[in-house]
Amino acid sequence: MSALQTAVGDGLIMTWRNLKRVPRIPELAIFAILQSIMFVLLFAFVFGGAIPLPGGGSYREFLMPGIYIQTLGFACITTAIAVTDDMAKGLIDRFRSLPMARSAVLSGRTISDVVYNTGILVVLMLSGLVVGWRVHTNVGDFLLAVALMLFFTFAMAWIGVLIGLLVPSVEVGQQLGFLIVFPLTFVSNAFVPTETLPSWLRPVAEWNPFSALTAATRELFGNPNPFPSGFPGDHPFLLSILWTTALLLVFAPLAVRKYRSIDR
Q1: First and final CA of the chain: distance in angstroms?
Q2: pLDDT digits (tens, 9 = 90+) for 120-129
Q3: Can you say how many angstroms the Cα of residue 2 is from the centroid of all Cα atoms in its chain?
């Protein structure tokens, strides 16, 4: 087999190994699903009547793409915890000693997390339909929005891998992940229009990658998308592609470099 065939085959084996944890530890998926549903219900019914949208429109339809992006962004914390746990248990050292492609451990982890979060995204969308979210565009735009979100999930998974390789414990990995992702999701247009933010904070929110992804998915779903004119507001899809590609090009090589530098 060629080196590429070996890397792909070993990566798929590692992907399957990671996915087998879900049925064996069903609490992982159950609590992730319950947390996602809780976010939908809290924001839809608690804040739904208190946040008016510029230009009108359904707040619940405005909200749901933000919930999708927030949930997929926080998925990097799950990745970081899993990698840190494997490091602490010595599994990474065991994998490195086996006759397998070095890339398989990292590619298997990131691909399995994309598959896992695809299931979470399906549950979120079903929950959104229950509270009133609808797609007003065609099937092609819907699938393009889903593909964009999964591309973003793949990039965030590499950030989680890097965090997991850097931190000494699961607790530190979880705290660092929240410290990075939490402000990015809330200083954005995920839950409120950027026009409602203070003037000094508004440019940060408008150029935020989470804002770009949220605005792009709103456009593709045909949901309300109040956004000031300018490059972020006029070209959210292009900006989201640029942001996601940049995150992938920066953090994937850093994660690979860190993995290669681990002492035997």
Answers
A1: 26
A2: 899 889 988 9
A3: 33
